[in-house]
Every structure is written in C-alpha cells, then in structure tokens.
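Re: beginner question about structure tokens

> Can someone show what the tokenized structure looks like for a real chain? I only ever see the sequence side.

Sure, here's an example I had lying around. Input first:
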Amino acid sequence: MAHGFSMTRHPRYAVFLIVCGLVTVFLISRPAPVPYFSTASRGASLKGFLLEEDAHYSKVVHDREAMVRKYGPSPSQIESFPLRDTFYTLWDYFIPAFQCPHRVERVGTMGDGGKWMCGLDRIARQSECVVYSFGLNGESSFEAEILTRAPGCQVWGYDFSVTSFGPEIENNPRLAGRAHFHPWALGGTDSYGPSADPPFYTLHTLMEMNGHSFIDILKIDIEGGEFETLDRFVDAFAQGSHGDVGVGGRVTVPGANALPIGQLQLEIHARSSEYASFPVFKRWWEKLEAAGLRPFMAEPNLVYVNLVRGVPPDLAEYSFMNIRGEHALVSDGPH
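And the corresponding structure tokens:
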C-alpha cells in the first residue's frame, strides 16, 4: 500500500528545502563582485578617479622620503647601485605606483623593443594622433603595431645611427606611408648647423618644425640623453606661472603649463653621467612628477646585465602617463 508523503514526517528534508531557498535568494540578490582593479570606467568619473589615484600616489612619495631617511639619511649618502651591504638599488625608490585608468598592455615585440602602454584602444579611436619615437636601432615593432591598430596615427622617427625605420615598417607599404624618418639626434640643446654631425634638435624645436602642438605617444631611448632632454622639455612647457606643483594636486591644468604629451615610454640609462648619482636622479625624477608625469609600469632591461656579467642593473624601461591637460587618457571628450 502506497504511503502519502508528509513534511512533518521528514523534518530533515524540510530543512533542506528551506536552506536551498535561502541560498537561491542570496545568490540572486547579492551585488556584482567588486573587481580587484577598480577603474574609472566602472562607475566613477575619469577625473575623479585620477584625483583619487593621485592622492594614493602622494603616499608613495611620502614613503619614498621615509626610505631615504632610513638608508641615507640624506640623498647624497645613498648609492644608486651599491656593491655590498645594502639591499636596495635606485629603482626600488622610484616605483611605478600610479594606476592607469585604462587598459595597460605591452605593445611591440617581446623582449627589447616592446613597450608598456596605457589606453591604446582609446587613442586608436581618434581621427588623428601623433607619435614621436627617438632611438630605433633597426627595430620598429612598437611603432608598427601602433600604426596597425590606430589608423589615424602617424609616426615621426629619429635616430642618427640608422638610415630608416626597421623592416616592420619599411617592408609594409601600408604603414610606411604614415611614417616619417630623419637621421637626427635628440638633445637638450639645438645644434644642427651645416657642420653638425649628427645634428641635434630639442623636442620643442622638432614640434615647431613639424607643426605639432601635442604628442599623443612619446617614446625615448637615446642612451643617456634622456635626462637633459626631458629637463629642458619640462623647462620649456611646464614651468612658469604653474610654479612648483606637488603630487596630489590639480589634475587638469589648462594652458601652456601642461606638458604637450599624453604618455611617455622611456628607457632610463642611469650610468656614466651626473644623473646616475642618487641625489641628482631624485631631483630629475621629482621634476617629472611636478610636471604631471606618473609612472604606471616599469620593466628592468636585463639584456646588458646578461651579456656583460658583473655590470649593475642600471637600465630600466618606465612608462608614464600625463595626468594634466586634455587628452585621451584623462578626458572622455573628443580629442
């Protein structure tokens, strides 16, 4: 004889059904998980995100000063690459602590030649964009990928040690038409008379010659010349009524006092010059920060260390974004 089912006769089954119901309600009603890396595109305004992120960056600057006091206690007492007894090198004091609010990706070949970029997808949507690349050495995978993905971009390339872009552009007529090469050197002062070999141009002068008021992507790899070059570049554009601007300040500074670049891909050669000393490097780095440049990625260049055993790790790739002005990385408006 069949027996009728009764909830009262199976209390454990009833409890099971109640628990399942509660779990179902919880799963349906709970909010979406918060992403580990929060970006401006997930709710907050882009300007608001940058202001908040720069406030976080100011803490890193404070921590850097504390680290200098601990191991100095003055900058002049710190060695950039100590031979013994000290754990930390120059790069440990200057970390890429700023979070780019857009996709960060490595563009170009693996190994030497590729660079870390912020927001290439946003730049690629522009009808026009300007790329300057200094130091090619016969390898142009970085520039070629930008031209491929961003049809509105044109590249101006400079390198006195070669006669053209690398094969990635030279062998591709579709890209070569938007690439402009000159066998010139980049420096902190102009020296391009008839007897100049090679001719040197400042970044400011080249922009004037090319009729450019803004560079979306600036790549510099010039074997130590980056220090004086950027020193003079900041002097030309970011000083004046803007004064000394510390981190955590205003994100948008209209007018001529904002550097006319969107981002900077830079190989730093901290060797064989006064800039390799810790106090001089620190002042130079702080000048970049005061001008609105924030490091969002770094990568040690260990090729030289591997080839020449015993040399210090004094080469590093850094990527910076400019948090000031009006451009694709800091503004959602048309550019």
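Each token stands for a local structural state, so reading them left to right follows the chain. Confidence is low (pLDDT under 50) at residues 30-43, 240-256.
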